[in-house]
Amino acid sequence: MRTIDWVDGAIEIIDQTLLPDKLTILRLTSVDRLIDAIERLAVRGAPALGVAGAFGAALASRTAVPAAVPAAIERIATARPTAVNLARCARRAGDRLAEGPEAVLAEALLIRDEEIAASLEMGRRGADLVIDRCGPAATVLTHCNTGALAAVTGGTALAAVVELHRRGTLAGVIASETRPLLQGARLTAWELGAAGVPFRLAVDGAGPFLMARGEVDAVILGSDRICANGDVVNKIGSYAHALGAKAAGIPFIVVAPESTIDPDTPSGAAVTIEDRGPEEVVAFGTRAVAPPATRAVNPAFDVTPAALVTAIVTDRRTIRLDLGERP
After folding, report:
1. pLDDT more than 70, % of the chain
2. How far apart are CA 48 and CA 86, in angstroms?
3. Are strands 318-319 and 311-313 parallel, antiparallel or unpaired?
4. Same topology for domains 4-115 and 119-323, yes or no?
5. How far apart are CA 301 and CA 272, in angstroms?
6. Separation CA 107–CA 192 (nearest Å)
7. pLDDT for 165-205, tens place per residue?
8. Residue 1: predicted pLDDT
9. Is 224 one of the catalytic residues?
10. What whole-number distance in Å separates Cα of residue 238 and Cα of residue 268?
11. What are phi and psi of 301, to 5 degrees?
12. Per-residue pLDDT at 297 exceeds 90
């Protein structure tokens, strides 16, 4: 099953906010509904957001008044500010607007197919690197969700994890729960279980201690934007895992499609980090867990400096930052 696809003139997505309790397919027939799905994380993950942006451009070209289509595409492109794929792919598909709606859709479908192919290659390259650095029986820690739900099929970092399992070279996985929305506990655990991959779930703060105790051989995760200097922007909590990996002397590996690399952003300091407001922090689902009027800060992403990153694996290359290479 694909996380996102174009079906009979509309966008169909798995509603990730309902997992693991319910597998629901949403059919999106308007730009407003797509933007709502993006903002509330019904569709998320850098590759999936890129495809959503491209399909959104196709949808806008078919449903909006012609004069309003460029503005509609820009609304989609800026629905979430941090992940580069959303804006890049929406604008890439929109660049064919002068050729008509069918050309925009053709570009969007091409982007979808590129991401499917990229997942296969990232899985292979990522597994190769983990085996090279850690040997044939590695326990890896992963953060947030980087499987098919974050892409179209396959995934990024989780594609490499599943490939390690397929090769018989994976000792186990520790998935961090990924507060505040629990993408690790809800989504990664669901995907690993479905794939038959052995795993344990840990609270986010346990990761660095488990590394220090020798229970983790490598950290492997994805990215929403990779800057020109090698800084990695990813789900909040990634930076703490990078610090833990550095202290423990284990590899910190980022697996992301080439489309996530943003040469126009010099460093993480130039990235707008989305703050999602206090509601996700002061409550657990619908239940308040903090006193009324509690203030909160809720950055959705953080920046891991390039100096803490061992390597970046894309569908085209392996960039060894520890050897001085840069994107």
Report:
1. 100
2. 8
3. antiparallel
4. no
5. 10
6. 32
7. 999 999 999 999 999 999 999 999 999 999 999 999 999 99
8. 83
9. yes
10. 13
11. -135, 165
12. yes
Sign of CA pseudo-dihedral 18, 37, 114, 234: negative
pLDDT of residue 25: 98
Distance CA 112, CA 127 (A): 23
Q: How is residue 73 written in tokens?
A: 């595409």
Record: fold of 119-323: Rossmann fold (3.40.50)
What is the pTM for the complete model shown? 0.95
Asked whether 174 and 208 are in contact (CB, 8 A), the reply is no
Label residue 218 by pLDDT band (50, 70, 90): very high
Query: How confident is the model over 236-253, as pLDDT tens digits?
Result: 999 999 999 999 999 999
Can you give the residue ranges of every domain in the chain?
Answer: 4-115, 119-323
What confidence tens digit (pLDDT) does each residue in 86-110 have?
Answer: 999 999 999 999 999 999 999 999 9
Residue 181 and residue 104 in contact, taking contact as beta carbons nearer than 8 Å: no
Does 180 sit behind a cis peptide bond, omega within 30 degrees of 0 on the bond before it?
yes
Question: Cα–Cα distance between 38 and 59 in angstroms, integer?
Answer: 15
Give me the catalytic one of 5, 224, 231, 262. Answer: 224
- Provide the phi-psi class of 301: left if phi over 0, else alpha when psi is between -120 and 50, else beta: beta
CA separation for the pair 244, 239 (Å, rounded): 9
Cα 39 to chain center, whole Å? Answer: 14
Q: At a CB cut-off of 8 Å and minimum separation 6, what does 292 contact?
A: none
pLDDT one-digit tens code per residue, 26-45: 999 999 999 999 999 999 99
CATH topology of domain 4-115: Four Helix Bundle (Hemerythrin (Met), subunit A) (1.20.120)
Structure tokens at 227: 């800057």
